[in-house]
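Pasting as-is:
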Amino acid sequence: MELKTFFDNFETMAEAPNGVQKLREMILQLAVQGNLVPQDPNDEPASVLVEKIKTEKKRLSKEGKIKRFKDLPAISTDLFPWRLPENWDWTRLAAIGLVNPRNDVSDDIKVSFIPMKLIPVKLGENVQFEERIWSDVKQGFTHLAEGDVVCAKITPCFQNGKSAVLRNLVNGIGAGTTELHVFRSVSDEILADYVLLFLKSASFLNNGVDVMTGSAGQKRVPADYFAMRPFPLPPTNEQKRIVAKVDELMVLCDDLEARKKQSRQTCIQLNDACIDKMLAAREPARFNKHWQRIHTNFDLLYSQPENVNKLRQAILQLAVQGKLVPQDPNDEPASVLLEKFQALRERTVEEGRVKAFKSTNMVMTDETHFKKPAGWEWTRLGALSISMTNGIYKPAKYYSDTGVGCLRMYNINNGKINFENLKRMELDTGEIEKYRLHKGDLLVNRVNSRELVGKAAVVWDLKEPLVFESKNIRVCLVNNTILPFYLNIFFQTSYVKDVFQGTAKQTCGQASISQPQIAGIPTPLPPLNEQRRIVAKVDQLMALCDDLETKLQKSQKRNHQLMEAAVVEMLAFEKYAV
């Protein structure tokens, strides 16, 4: 990819997942590879600058101002990570400055003290500091001075890119955490800001991680890696051009990031407002108006994954409010359905198939979430179930690779039964009969975290006998009287989740709900035919949401691939040979 193509696609690549951060990394790497700004053949070659610094260090050494000077061995060409432009030179930080130098100042002067927490990650942020007396910090801390470039050496601070140029220190002197490597230039022709770009580049950080030593959580980058790693040095004038260009592009990245964040927030807020108004609408005309607004702005509103999830929840809530499909006055009312169900339940009790179920109190007006549509009834879940049963409890040793499949709380996800990692149990015939699941049962999770307790799914695809564990409750329904899939839709709504999260008993970090709590949930019951229409419509709209998510994923994948291709082509470099 040519540099022009890179800049032409700058904003497009920013749309990739973590795109702006990737752009920042690319800019830094392009900078130290000599690919960000054009070279000027009139610039004094960097090799001349290296010789000047060598002469200066010899002088300072002779005057006793620095340690005894000695020539460093030449860098093997095998260690060069990439090919440099003309007039650049491979050198080392140890060759062009001082690494981890010491200060010699009066004990009573005020100085800056810099703990690790005050060293920024982001390029361009100023280093903050505390004020101390030199005698208090000169021992046991890293010595620092105005213009030094510091780099964290311990994990995870190193990987996070904690590094900075020190400026505006009190009296030009400071001390700080011992977890720093320090570079101090001996020449104004080495720009501290350019050195900082190198310390924040992907090549320096990635290879530094590979050579870290120490135990887990306490790994550090060796001093030799910092001091002796090949350093790409441009001519002084090009250093200035590079730093200026990086500053310009980082401002552009900040702007892109802010615009992207604002666009995202605006999109989310607009979607929230549209959905809230649609859910709150009481008259069909107002509901249709707000739904039309969503439909008109569909591409805008659902360009964010979290908005698609909110659309799913809105669909579920509209479904159980009676707003998703029209009512049909010819449908048999839900009140008649309840009477039929009561007769069916009483007959099962008389036949001895189930125990007598406790009477269920009427739903009071202040318990309802919305005004019921014509033909609907507010009832309680207990009035719609024949029985509820907690699952079988067996210690872990009873699970095996053979036997009857047992659905655990982990097998209930997003309103569906997930058969991955299905555990099995060796059970006797009586246990199997007591806990066996049947087509149309509603399985409700009764013990979990507060956020997940009460998740539910319909048991439907029974290719083999299945039982259920004790952290779940089986709700037995009459399939031709109350559609289990309609109740499953109801259980996925925020109404039910809010009830469980508000009433669940909390013990040792786990929330739990009981059969009476489940039986007592106020439930909006539509006529049977409307239940069928609701379930069909929800299935249709959830498929639409699936398509939306697929399109978003494909779009993000394309942007990600473009970014990765640019990284591979423009930033190709070999790992530093240790």
